[in-house]
Amino acid sequence: MRNLKLVAVASAAAATLAACATTGKPAAPAVRINADPYPSTYQPYAGAPTLIRNVTIFDGEGGQINGGSVLLADGKVQAVGTDVQAPAGAIVIDGAGKYVTPGIIDVHSHLGDYPSPAVQAHQDGNEATGPARPEVWAEHSVWPQDPGFSRALTNGGVTALQILPGSANLFGGRSVTLKNVPARTVQGMKFPGAPYGLKMACGENPKRVYGSRNTMPSTRMGNIAVTRQTWLQAQAYKRKWDAYQKKGGDMPSRDLAMETLSGVLAGDILVHNHCYRADEMAIMIDLSKEMGYKIGTFHHAVESYKIADLLAREGICSAMWADWYGFKMESYDAIRENIPFVHNAGACAIVHSDDPNGIQRLNQEAAKALTAGRRTGVEISEATAWTWLSANPAKALGIFDKTGSLRPGKMADVVLWNGNPFSNYSRPERVWIDGAEMYNAASPNKRPVSDFELGQVGEGDVK
Amino acid sequence: MRRVATAALLVGCSLLLAAPATAQTIAITGGNVAIGDGSEPIRGGTVLIREGRVVAAGAQVSVPAEATVIDATGRWVTPGMVAGFSRLGLADVDAVEGSNDISANGPFSAALDIAPALNPNAQPVAINRADGVTRAIVAPAVGRSIFAGQGALIDTGADLEPVTRARLFQYVELGEEGASEAGGSRASAHVLLRNALREASELSRFASPIRGGGARQRPGVPENPTDPKLLTSDAQRSDDVLLTRFDAAALVPVLRGQQILMVHANRSTDLLQVIGLRREFPNLKLVIVGADEGWMIADRLAASGIPVIASALTNLPGSFESLAATQSNIGRMRQSGVKVAIGTVDDDDPRMAFRVRWYAGNLVGLSKIPGAAGLSWGEALRMVTSAPADAVGLGAEVGSLQPGRRGDVVIWSGDPLDNGSIPEVVLIDGVRQPLENRQTKLRDRYRDLQRRELPEAYRR
Known about the structure:
The structure holds 2 protein chains of 2 kinds.
Chain A: H1 11-17, E1 50-58, E2 64-73, E3 76-81, E4 91-94, E5 99-102, E6 104-109, H2 148-154, E7 158-163, E8 171-179, E9 197-201, H3 204-211, H4 220-247, H5 256-265, E10 270-274, H6 278-291, E11 295-299, H7 308-314, E12 317-320, H8 338-344, E13 349-351, H9 362-375, H10 382-385, H11 391-396, E14 414-417, E15 428-433, E16 436-440
Parallel strand pairs in A: 1-4, 1-5, 6-7, 9-10, 10-11, 11-12, 12-13
Antiparallel strand pairs in A: 1-2, 2-3, 5-14, 7-8, 8-9, 14-15, 15-16
Chain B: E1 25-33, E2 42-50, E3 53-58, E4 68-71, E5 76-79, E6 81-86, H1 123-130, E7 133-138, E8 147-155, E9 163-173, H2 176-181, H3 186-206, H4 245-250, H5 252-255, E10 260-265, H6 268-280, E11 285-290, H7 298-304, E12 308-310, H8 329-335, E13 340-342, H9 356-366, H10 377-383, H11 386-391, E14 409-412, E15 423-428, E16 431-432, H12 438-446
Parallel strand pairs in B: 1-4, 1-5, 6-7, 9-10, 10-11, 11-12, 12-13
Antiparallel strand pairs in B: 1-2, 2-3, 5-14, 7-8, 8-9, 14-15, 15-16
C-alpha cells in the first residue's frame, strides 16, 4: 500500500472542491484517497547488541554456516559469517550445539480472527453474508489478546504472520500482516510497510455455504461465474477511477469492495487464493489472466504436485501442509511429497499452518516434508528447506526486502533453537523481533501472557 | 488379520477374537529394539515372533533355525503405535456424510456399537498402517445424548476384519459437550448419567443372571455376556424411564464393571466429579479421556488409579474447560503417578493418529525447557504403545514387545519419535502388511510430469 501514490485527504472536503466538468471551467484536480487509513503504529522494542557465536546457521536463503556467528544490533542483522566480532558491550551468546535461523513466517493464520477460546463471540473470520466480500478487512476482526500469538512465538519461533479472512466467500476480504509482538491494538502489531493481501477461495467452501442457502454459487461453475462477474465490476470501477485520477472532475462514488479489487488490478494488493485441486488452480490461473491480475500464492494447495510445472512457469507460490488429508473431498488427493515435489519442480514452496496448533510446529512440518521427499529420492538440504519457512513466505507477503533471511540490514527477526530445528526434540530458546528479545526460555519475564490469561489458572505457565 | 470363526468367550469379559494360527516364525535381528514398556532401546536386539505373537525381544534372544530372518541392522524396532484415542475406521472422508459413521442422531445412544460401522478399507486405515499405527482405540462421538455408544480396539491390517475387541467401552461426555447434549448444563448431564445408571440397575435386577460361555441359546437370539440387551426382553421396567430398553440394557455391563466407562472431560472440577462417581457406583471401571486440566489435580487422579488418555500438545485455552491447558500436562501427571497415555483427543481423530509418535517426541523435547515437564524417550514411546493398551485393560494383549503380546512390530528407518524416520516394515499379528495406499500411488503417478505417450490416468 505504501507504493500507492494516493495520500490522505478527507473525502467530504473533496466533494465540495470538485468542479462541474460541464461548465467549461477546468476540472478540479482529483482528490487523493487515503490508502492507509489504519496505519501501523508498531514500534520495535529496544534490543541490546547481541552476538550469537559458535552456532549452526541456516541463513534463510539456502545457505548453511557451521560454527558461525550472527550479530544483531540496532534492530537489524548486522553481520553473519564465521568471523564476526562482538562490538564492545555486546551480549555474547555461545550457541554450541544450537542453531540460528530467521524467524518463521506463517503466510496463513487465523490467529485473532478465529482466536482461543473458540467461542461463538470470537468467530470473526468469515463474513459469510455474501460470496463476494472484498470490502471486509481481517484487521478489523483481529483480537490482539488471542493467547495463540504467544504459543506461535515461544514454541513456533514465528516472528511474522499473515491473518486472513476465512474461505466461506469467493472474495473473503483483505488480509493483514503482523509482527508477532503483543500490542494493545491491531495497529500496534501491523507489519510496517507490508502490502495488503486479498483472500480468495475456490472449491467446496463457497459453493457449500451459499448453495445450502439456495443462492449462487452452488456449484464450481457458479463459483467461477460469480468471481468473473465481480472482476468485471472491478475493471469498470478502476477505469472510472483511473480516468478521474488523471482528469479530475466529479469524484466517482467510493466502493470499499471495488477499491480492494482495484488495488489488486493495480498490483498493489497481493492475491492469496485458497484452492485445493489442481484443475481448479489451472482455471484460476486462466481467470487471473482474463481479468488482468496476478495470483501470488495458492493456499492449501494439496494438489500442487499435479501441476508443479505449471506453477513454476507462472511463478505462483504454493502454501501447503506436510500431511493433512482427507478431511473433505477436495483434500482427498493430498500426498506427503507435495512440498518437496513442488520445490523440486522449481516452483515456490511454503509451509503454512491455518491452525493455532500447527503454527507452533511449522519447522517440524518442513522436516516431515523433507523426510517424505528423501524416501522418494528428492534430496533437499535442510538449509534449502528453511526457505519454505521464512524467505518464500516473506516473498509471498511482499516483505522479503525487510525480513525473511539473515541478510545484513534486514530486520533482526531471529530464532536461536536449542538443537536442530528439523528435529522434534528442538525448541526455540530465544526469539528476537527487530532485535528485541521477545522470548527467552530461561526467563519467565520473557514469556508473553495475554490479557485473557491473566488471573486464570495457569497464568504464565510454560505452555 | 484373518480371524478364526469361533470367538473365545470369557465370562464377564468382552468378545476376544483370536488371531490367526500362523505357524511362521519371524526373527527381526540387529535393530535398535525398544520394548514399549518405558525402557530405553536395546542396541543389536532381536525380536522373535511365532504364531503371530512375540516370543522374546531383547539382547540375548537366540534365533531358531526355522525362523524367517529380517535384518534390521541400523534400523529401529518397536511395537506398532497404539492410537490411544481415535475415530479411525469410522470415516473415509470426514465431510462426506455417507462415508462418516462417527456419530448418529437416531433414537439410540448407549446401545450403539461401532463394530458394524468400521470400514477397514477407508483410506485413513491404510495411511495410518503405512505410518506405523497397528492398533487403535476407536470411540464413537455423541449425537443426541451424553452417551455415544460402545467403542472397540481395532487393528489396521489390510483385511476385512478390523475388530480386536468389540464393545470394549461405553463412551460418555461429561464436560462442555456433555452439558450441551444434556440440554445446557453440567448439572443436567450428571442427572442424566445417574438416571441412566438407575434404569440400567433396574433392568439388571429384573434380568436373568448373566450367563457365561455355553449358555443356552434361544433360537435366533445371539447371546453375549457383555450385551444383555437381547437377554432381557422379558425384564420388567417401571414407567418412569427416559432411555430405550436397548440403551438401558447396554449400560448394565458398565454398572457391573464388566465394561469400561470412558468419560470425556477436561475441566479440573469435571475430573473431580468423575473421580467421585465411584463413591456412588463402586463397580464402575473408569477411563478418562481429555483431562486438559488433569495436571491441576494430578494427585487426586493418581490416588484414584483411573487411567487417563490425553492429547499431548494441547496448550491453548480453546474453551473454558481447558483454560489451564499446557504441554506439560502429561509430564506432570506422569510425575504424580497418574496412569497416563497419549491419544488424539479432538485432534483430527478419524485420520491423524499417526502423529502420536511425533507428539511423543515433542514431549521428549519439552523436557529441555525450564519449568516444563516432559518425558524420557522410553516413557514417551510407552505413552503411544503399551500405555494406551494398559488404559483399556489390554496391555497383556497388545502394545509392547514383551512375550505373549500380539506380533505388532514396526521396523523404522530411524528414531520413530523424530521426524526423519519412516516405517519400512509393518507386522500385525505377525503378518507383514502392505504399505501402499492412494497417497503412495498418486505420488508415483505424478512423480514425473513429463508428457508421455498416454495420459497420467494410464500410469499405475
